[in-house]
Amino acid sequence: MTNMNTKIKHILMAVLICLTFSYCTNVNKNDNLVVMETYDPNDSTMVIWEGIYSGILPIDDWDEFAAIWLYNDSTYLLMTAEQDSKGDVNVTEGFLTFNDEVLQISTNDTTYYYYITTESLIPLTAELSYNTPIVKEKYTMRKRGGITDTYWRLKELNGNNISMTGLNEEPYMMISSDSLNIYGSSGCNDFRVRCRIREKNNIELEKVAMTRRGCRNQQLENNIVNALSNINTYDIVSDTLIFYNGNTPVALFVADYLQ
Q1: Residue whose C-alpha is closest to residue 1's, from 67, 103, 69, 94
Q2: DSSP letter at 202?
């Protein structure tokens, strides 16, 4: 079992988070992740699956907000709270089972099955088949500290370092885990774009919407819009986010956790 003092700290911290941020739906804590050798059906390589996930968990005949810690010693800590409760938080601990592409989390009353991706736990039925798309999306547990809910500062575009010359502010973006809208700035105008995050780090962006202020560095803004319009995959290495068009890197962002 993971060191009990560490788990007690997580419990106390999570209670504070839940009470402050509506029971774990908007939490943003970033824990250290550990690379573990597990079976990944996409590429059969090392995958990072230790960390914190949050979302909605079906319990009996109702839904509850949930946050779950997956530890590298194959144990878990699960915290749940009813959506209309006034502060009651339930804590469960146990062991994980990972077999044939499926993560199994067993509590005293229920067994949950998930397929693990780089950003989420996708729910499976007890028969190990996918739920309907609507149900699957509703009960998918999102990994915290991933591509969403992080302030990403643009550092390179098409291999060139970003200069602040002619900019009103640093170019940045954030992806909301609730709406999957991308919000950001080109350094002059604000932009927003709807995105879809797929498996295997695929990402689809709709048309970029922007404010219409005149810019001293219009070329940079045009290049940013063009880059966002053509990306289709991404990769996260430590605190660096890289967007690709095919195999070509087009934009490199660095996480700023102080924002």
Answers
A1: 94
A2: B
Residue 7: pLDDT over 50: no
pLDDT at 12: 39
Written as one string, the DSSP assignment of 91-154 is: EEEEEEEEETTEEEEE-SS-EEEEEE-SSEEEEE-TTS-B--HHHHHHTPEEETTSSSS--EEE
Express each pLDDT in 16-41 by its tens digit: 344 333 333 333 333 332 223 333 43
Residues 205 and 229 placed together within one structural domain of the fold: yes
Task: Provide the whole-model pTM.
Answer: 0.50
Q: What is the CATH number of the domain that holds 250?
A: 2.40.128.270
Rounded to 5 degrees, φ, ψ at 205 are -115, 140
Between residues 34 and 103, the one the model is more confident about: 103
- Domain hosting 28: range is 4-143
pLDDT for the residue 69? 85
Q: How many residues does the chain have?
A: 259
Note the Cα 216 to chain centre separation in Å.
Answer: 34
Q: Which of 48, 229, 259 is nearest to 251 (CA)?
A: 229
